[in-house]
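== Sequence entry ==
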Amino acid sequence: MSQNGEIILRNVGLSYGKEIIYENFNAVFPQGVNVILGRSGSGKTTLLNIISGLISHSGECVSDKAAVVFSEPALAPVSVENNVRMVLKKADCNAVDEALKLARIEDKRKQNALTLSDGEKQRVALARAFASKRKVLLLDEPFARLDYGVKRRLHDTLIDYLQTSAATVVMVTHDVDEALTLADRIYFLDGRPCCLTEAASLSAPPSKRDIYGAEYEALRKQVLNLF
């Protein structure tokens, strides 16, 4: 169990064959939204898999149990509400109702999840994560496959949830604007073995940000120069 919601990695090592991905890797992700940028193949998803315990590694990872949302939601061919109910250890109608409302998908609760649009499916995946009430939320490019309008509405959904939750979020994305919209801290992952650099810290709440204003344009250029 972690203290203060932090995720702590100490001397983490991981290799695939002769390629060293992580070696003596150390990082601390505080409570809040930690967004990781990086080139394709830089090791971002691998880092999420280490935190979630999906892959073995040397060293230590201190983290509470995580809920994970992927870019491709893994939904069962049952109703929306039953997909959400799957993450609960016991029947809890209130938890299901609350999660569906938070994810703004309660009007589809009786519909087979596989018949939904891509954006609606991702809302079900978010609702499932919300219902789990896990202290750690790992997001692996959850909005990458969605068009701009749907993506922005899902950003609002996530922001609303995080205002009511003291979660520690680690999110992987290639979208710098998405990072500027959601992040408390932006990191850049690069190199072999992987090296993590904190690129920016954002103090204004997401609802107060004009990410296309002059202040954020300078920050955008600073982050883009890392690629």
In short: The chain has a mean pLDDT of 92. Helices lie at 44-52, 80-85, 93-102, 118-132, 148-163, 176-182, 214-224.
